[in-house]
């Protein structure tokens, strides 16, 4: 990780790549990935990766870019045991759900802290 990348962590341990995912701004996400300062699976303090942020932003393009660049769809948030697929199901974005399952090979049998499965119909 570069010196610049080290100093942009916030109190939650989020990087500029997390912020780019959260914003859904594809150009920012591509910029930070191309620079190579961050692993796309970099985790914050809750073990959440930029993919969680991109899923919550609702940006299919951001999710796709992260998956294309090696983001894991099966990472687990230590706060509630949720995965990006759980987050996508909470938002109801069926296109992101489908992308996580087909391209990201997300585990559809993963359960969160209350033992909820993602139900796909």
From TrEMBL:
The entry's cellular-component GO terms read: cytoplasm
Q: What is this protein called?
A: Death domain-containing protein
Tell me where the ANK repeats sit in this chain: 46-78, 80-104
| Repeat found in the keyword field | yes
User: A Pfam family name for this chain?
Assistant: Ank_2
The answer on whether this UniProt entry bears the keyword Cytoplasm reads no
Instruction: Tell me which domain of life the UniProt entry assigns to the organism this sequence originates from.
Output: Eukaryota
Q: Which UniProt keywords apply?
A: ANK repeat, Repeat
């Amino acid at each position: 990780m570069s010196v610049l990348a080290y100093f942009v962590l916030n109190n939650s341990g989020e990087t500029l790549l997390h912020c780019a995912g959260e914003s859904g701004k594809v150009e920012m996400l591509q910029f930070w990935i191309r620079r190579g300062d961050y692993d796309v699976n970099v985790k914050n303090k809750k073990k959440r990766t930029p993919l969680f942020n991109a899923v919550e932003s609702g940006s299919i393009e951001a999710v796709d870019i992260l998956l294309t660049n090696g983001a894991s769809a099966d990472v687990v948030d230590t706060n509630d045991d949720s995965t990006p697929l759980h987050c996508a199901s909470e938002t109801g974005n069926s296109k992101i759900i489908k992308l996580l399952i087909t391209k990201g090979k997300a585990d559809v049998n993963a359960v969160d802290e209350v033992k909820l499965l993602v139900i796909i119909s």
